[in-house]
Amino acid sequence: MFDFLHYAFMQRAFLAGTIVAFLCPTIGIYLVLRRLSMVGNMFSHVSLAGVALGIFTGTYPLGAALALSVASAVILEALRRTYRIFSDLAIAILISAGISLAVILISLSRALNTDLFSYLFGSVIAISEQDLYLIAVVGLFVMLLVFVLQKELFYIAFDEAGARAAGIRVDLVNMLFVLAASLTIAVAMRVVGALLVSSLLTVPVAAALQFGKSFRTTLFWSYLLALTSVFSGLMVAYYCNLAPGGSIVMCSLIIFVLSIIWGRRSGRKQDVGT
To answer: Using one digit for the tens of pLDDT, what is the confidence trace for 78-92?
Structure first.
């Protein structure tokens, strides 16, 4: 049953998928609590533009995606400060900028090829050792950053005004968190694909809300469900010769539907606290 683990490309895929399965809920739970789920969609479009830029310039596409994502994180926070009342405008503007830049660069480089499609939809055979090392380094950095800022992030997620009054440097914490989100989405794109990566940020968390009775237990369930989705999705992709992005997200959606059914039968209400 697990004969595929004898292949080096599947070993890399599962290792990268494991890292991504921990990264996405770590960032996603704060995005969900802060009603910023569309940020994931924004960074996925920007990351796609970065991949197109890398292909166009002949540089490492994942590295270009990371660089452009970091730049967009800085721009996002600058725009959010400019439009504090209508902060969702910043997200909409960057989504438009990301997808338009991606389309232009793809058309200029005539990059509608197999390599681009592996970034769009994910590919179990396309993850190289270089990709895996970069995903591991970025994953370690993001997990450490969130661990250091966990108290501040938790406070801001539930009461940003109160966090400011308490002396927390909210703008700095927001900038660091958005930076972590941009890095997470850029590397997760290699496993799930740019078009579906935002789903892995939110769907496992949405399902976990049906099981978790507190913030910590919800995060634990998010990790468990994300890992289940990634592992089952990669297995389906291998045996059925499918793009892993679609398989992983479909598995997470099936788990989400089952969690909704369970939640309604047990009369669960979504209330995430400490």
So the answer is: 887 776 666 678 888
Distance of CA 136 to CAs 18, 87, 257, Å?
10, 32, 31
Identify the DSSP state of 214: S
Question: Two tokens at 192?
Answer: 């799930």
Residues in the chain: 274
Q: Which residues of 86-100 are buried (b: 16+ CB within 10 A; e: fewer)?
A: eeeebbeebbebbbe
- Interior angle at CA 125, CA 237 and CA 144, nearest 5: 90
Please report the sign of the dihedral spanned by the C-alpha atoms of residue 165, residue 169, residue 172, residue 178: negative
- In angstroms, the CA 170 to CA 269 distance is 30
Question: Could you give the number of structural domains in the chain?
Answer: 1
Residue 232's pLDDT band, with cuts at 50, 70 and 90, is very high
Q: Look at residue 115 and tell me whether its pLDDT is greater than 60.
A: yes
**Residue-number span of the structural domain to which 124 is assigned:** 3-197
Beta-carbon count within 10 A of 257 CB: 11
Domain harbouring 160, CATH code:
1.10.3470.10
Question: CB–CB of 119/193 below 8 Å?
Answer: yes
Residue position matching structure tokens 């958005």: 178
Decide: 242 and 192 in contact? Cβ < 8 Å: no
Biggest distance spanned by C-alpha atoms of the chain: 57
Q: Identify which of 215, 246, 223 has the alpha carbon closest to the alpha carbon of residue 233.
A: 246
Structure tokens that stand for 148 in this block: 């250091």
Whole-angstrom distance, CA of residue 159 vs CA of residue 161: 6
The backbone torsions φ and ψ at residue 163, rounded to the nearest 5 degrees and listed phi first, read -65, -40
Q: Is residue 255 part of a domain?
A: no
Q: Encoding tokens for residue 13?
A: 């895929």
Between helix 197-208 and helix 170-192 the angle, nearest 10°, is 110
